[in-house]
Amino acid sequence: MNNPLLKKYKTAPFSKIENAHFLPAISKLIEETKAEIDAITSNSEKPTFKNTVEVLENTGELLERATSIFFNLNSAETNDEIQKIAQEVSPMLTEFSNDMLLNEALFERVKTVYNQKDTLNLSEEQQMLLDKKYKAFSRNGANLSEEKKTELRKIDTELSKLSLTFGENVLAETNKFELHITDEKDLSGLPEGVIEAAAQTADEKGKEGWVFTLDYPSYVPFLTYADNRELRKKKAIAFGAKGFHNDALDNQQNVLQIANLRHKRANLLGYKSHAHFVLEERMAETPEKVKSFLNELLEKAKPAAQKEFNELTTFAKELDGIDHLEKWDGAYYSEKLKQKLFNLDDEKLKPYFELKNVINGVFTVAEKLYSLHFEEVQNIDKYHADVKTYEVKDDEGELVAIFYADFHPRAGKRNGAWMTSYKPQQLKDGKNERPHISIVCNFTKPTTSKPSLLTFNEVTTLFHEFGHALHGMLANTHYPSLSGTSVYWDFVELPSQILENWCYEKETLELFATHYKTGEVIPMEYIEKIKDSATFNEGMQTLRQLSFGMLDMAWHGQDPSGIKDVKAFEVAAFEDTQLYPDVKENCMSTSFSHIFQGGYSAGYYSYKWAEVLDADAFAYFQMEGIFNKTVADKFKNFVLSQGGTIDPMELYIKFRGQKPDPEALLKRAGLL
Fold first, then answer.
1. pTM
2. Which of 57, 173, 308, 465 is catalytic?
3. Is 465 a catalytic residue?
4. Mean pLDDT value of segment 135-142
């Protein structure tokens, strides 16, 4: 019992956990959860909602918590040992999940309750729980023959290992590359803060000069500002070639195997493709609807994107005599053109976006909208010194949530930004158990002379992830599997994307955007320029997002067994959205972690889908005032607190009084 993961704990006991604890703890907790399930199936009383569905919902609570700790560490603070454990733990969890979902006696009990659902007088939330539990079995093989169940188990085990290997390869590729500069003239164009950060990285690696990596805070500014076109090219090619070197870290076979196994799995379960299987449980419902949604947006965005691309090409030619724009020129000349058109660049804005002020800003927005109060506390265990911990309380001083925030890149952390949960909200034994929520980002680090100063893009990323966090924190449901962000995947981006809108508003910016040295509030002209430039190159941005959604649907919306060449397949999928010439050394699929490692397979379209919702929802706030309490209360009561208890379109209509209007997105994007 010296294993901290096997004892009752309030917040995750990070400092007490050693890597050696994970495997025995997860093994033991799987056995305990199996015993809980056996108790359900051996119950001699006839199946009821209470003795079957509710009891099943409450099984494996400690297992759930231990695995959420483990897998978040594998993303945010990993090492070789943790990755090795993950390769053992993942198949064990997959096997356990299959044992449960393919358990005939358990399914029979759930089915018995499900078949009587109209006579049981269940609440809306209970009906949703019953529906989800039944579908978890019926959609995942409970009705298959024994032979097919064995095949399904094999596929699922293989998939769990492959997606882990895919992610490990991407992280190793990211960490492996460095651009080491020793000649100062190669730094031309780069902002002073970026140069200082690169000197610090070089120093940490025991090298002279400057080192640039593929971490976003190093990669993005280099591509945006470095005058040396050859070095931009070198870095862009390295970034785009992750997992595409025909070596030990190559992901091409992993991509093909994952796509084929997902398709085989869908067929086995009676679906035409992986996308048909996934979308049955989404607002979009079918691959046909997704494709027509993406194509409709493409039709609106493509002329605008082509026009913007032509303007950028002309600008680059006039400025530097460049005949053909390449991918490593895009960010560089876009930034130059933006400066020319709006006299605005990130370097002018960054001094007004000190990380600690932006954090206070997003907290103030949450306070004004939802009456939440954040207090940083030092008595909560954390997995790394960089992590900040907060208690979140309401106006009465009652605890709403525990909040963790982890902001800067390091070797053990994968790129990107995400929100996760260490403990879900639920009503249990008459007590409202409050959630423990975390966000993980990769923002510009502080240097010896400057605090962490964010680009405007990083500011919107922080608001985005914090929107997800609010969805988790304000959860107020009975059952953990319906709580917080446990909603349809194409609805989950609404709370995150809507919050980004506040970053563009004068009322918000004046709350936190103050110069880190002088304390001066961001000048009004900058605010106007941020707003004016919000739709700059929006056509090209939209096309880029659509290209990712279309690539995802190409991999998952058809039989992939005929695909032999990952790169050739990808080039064909990008055909309708391509502006820049293809780079032969690059392949996006081999590091497209959203769909091959994260949960976005057949779901990448949902960013755009949710943008329709968020543009329409924010238009409502704008009509009534962006800090209007009545509208905020409706959003909290009908969207943020309800989790997956009610169909998302019903929730949206309760909040908005109508279905979302797609024109709101096109209008905001300047595409009408």
1. 0.95
2. 465
3. yes
4. 97
